[in-house]
Amino acid sequence: MIDFLPFIFIFAFIILQRVIELFVAKRNENWMKQQGAIEFGTQHYQYMVLMHLLFFVSFFIEKTLFNRGLSPIWPLVLFIFVCTQLMRIWVITSLGRYWNIKIIVRPNADIIKKGPYRFIKHPNYFVVSIEIIVIPMFFTAYFTAFLFTVLNVIMLAVRIPEEEKALRNLTEYEGKFQDSNRFFPKFVK
């Protein structure tokens, strides 16, 4: 029972965070579409949303059903989780009104290459990928961590090329990011 309170706190924090992000994304989507932006990836978007919803369902069920307790390395896991939350904020503030959970591209928009985008092309996907491992691992929900890591890899194999294609076709994306890796930081030029 002693580790159930941290679980409820973290679970509620993440859900609240995601709800706030949905409002921010919708506001940004409306603004971008008023500026002539075009949405891409609508075929897979519903599956991505479903995957993320099922992640939370699986995590909740696994934790409450098996209640294995906190990870033996929970301080490290908590540290990584806090770092991902700080990076998430850095990603969102770096993109400003261009941040979204959908693929929405404004033709001829200036490509933003500041904040974490100086180091990798897709820091938001990097953060989400780490979270999908770290959040369940905090509470030893190993099945959820493994299953949704695999599903996330499959989803990103569809989503990232779709996003990059849209950006290449409508912006100067290729020129701005020719020296950047997709997912892992590149510090040396």
UniProtKB/TrEMBL annotation:
Domain of life per record: Bacteria
Location within or outside the cell: Membrane
Transmembrane spans: 7-25, 45-61, 73-92, 125-158
Pfam family, one: ICMT
InterPro entries, per database record: ICMT_MeTrfase (IPR007269), Metal_cation-efflux_comp (IPR052527)
Topological relation to the membrane, as annotated: Multi-pass membrane protein
Keyword tags: Membrane, Transmembrane, Transmembrane helix
Keyword Membrane included in the entry's annotation: yes
PANTHER family registered for this protein in UniProt: BLL3993 PROTEIN
UniProt name for this protein: Isoprenylcysteine carboxyl methyltransferase
Phylogenetic lineage: Bacteria, Bacillati, Bacillota, Bacilli, Bacillales
